[in-house]
Write a structure and sequence with these properties.
The chain has two domains: 5-157, endopeptidase fold (from Nostoc punctiforme) (Alpha-Beta Complex); 201-264, Muramoyl-pentapeptide Carboxypeptidase, domain 1, CATH 1.10.101. It is 30% helix and 12% strand. The protein contains eight helices and six strands. The chain has helices spanning 5-14, 27-36, 47-57, 61-64, 70-79, 201-209, 225-237, 253-264, and strands spanning 83-85, 95-98, 108-112, 122-129, 142-148, 153-157. The longest helix has 13 residues, at 225-237.
Length: 265
């Protein structure tokens, strides 16, 4: 298949109206879970899995990327020299990342359906969102066409489409920089169940990204029962329990490195 914006959007539009199943289960999650050999991704937040699947199914995987976590996808475009500011002109087929709470971290991703001049609203199509403004924008139930405000956009990646079918030259036009191997952050000494120092928030974010903690659980410094349950499930799944334990809520350096690699690598 041709590596074009038109092909990507044709695939994306096939899924308009698609609805997730129980516990966020989707076909896109199943595909990504098979790709990374981790079943938990079949039930994870799926906006980026949807975009990545559309890239794969349209012959654009190598230029769109294959991710389940938006910040990692952002870094991938930045490493390739294909990242654009929210204030710039948008081209059809651009991959648009959103930051709802203005903390500089991507919360959601969609595909641009049309070109948009600087400052104009952006027509998109995305998954794991809602059909209107009243529903959750990054924890919705399906695939919908939307019109987004510039104020919600963090920035966008522009895939280097390889053949005709783009809109006004939407290819990146920049030679991709070599990507670097992901290195997990250092394990925080002293991180342990029922403690608040060091903070457990980074651990909780990684658990959410890999589907081991609910998306709506409030972040907390405390390594409490919900965090412990997520870690225990992750440890059991990956054979990381301490010897003799069937339930192990403590994350160790090895588990920490694996969890963060699965989440952000």
């Amino acid at each position: 298949m041709a590596s074009t914006a038109a092909a990507l959007l044709a695939e994306a539009k096939k899924w308009l109206g698609y609805k997730e199943g129980a516990n966020n289960h989707t076909q896109f999650g199943e595909w990504y879970a098979t790709l990374v050999k981790d079943k938990s991704f079949a039930y994870a937040s799926w906006c980026d899995e949807y975009v990545s699947y559309c890239g794969y199914a349209s012959g654009n995987a190598d230029i769109v990327g294959e991710f389940a976590y938006c910040p990692s996808h952002v870094n991938w475009f930045k490493n390739r020299g294909q990242w654009h500011r929210a204030t710039e002109a948008v081209k059809k087929g651009d991959i648009i990342f959103f930051d709802w709470n203005d903390d500089g971290v991507a919360d959601h991703v969609e595909i641009a359906r049309e070109d948009a001049a600087p400052g104009a609203t952006v027509a998109t199509i995305g998954g794991n969102t809602s059909s209107g403004r009243s529903g959750s924008q990054s924890n919705g139930d399906g695939v919908y066409a939307r019109v987004r405000y510039r104020s919600d956009i963090l920035g966008f990646g522009r895939p280097a489409y390889k053949s005709a079918g783009t809109s006004n030259g939407s290819g990146g036009g920049t030679k991709p920089a070599p990507t670097t191997k992901y290195t997990p952050p250092a394990f925080p000494k002293g991180l342990a169940p029922n403690h608040s120092t060091p903070s457990a928030k980074s651990l909780q974010k990684a658990l959410k990204a890999t589907g081991w903690m609910g998306k709506n659980v409030e972040l907390s410094d405390n390594y409490g029962p919900v965090t412990q349950k997520g870690v225990a499930g992750f440890n059991a799944k990956h054979g990381l329990n301490d010897a003799g334990k069937s339930y192990d809520p403590a994350i160790g350096p090895k588990g920490w490195a694996l969890l963060f690699t699965l989440a952000y690598g």
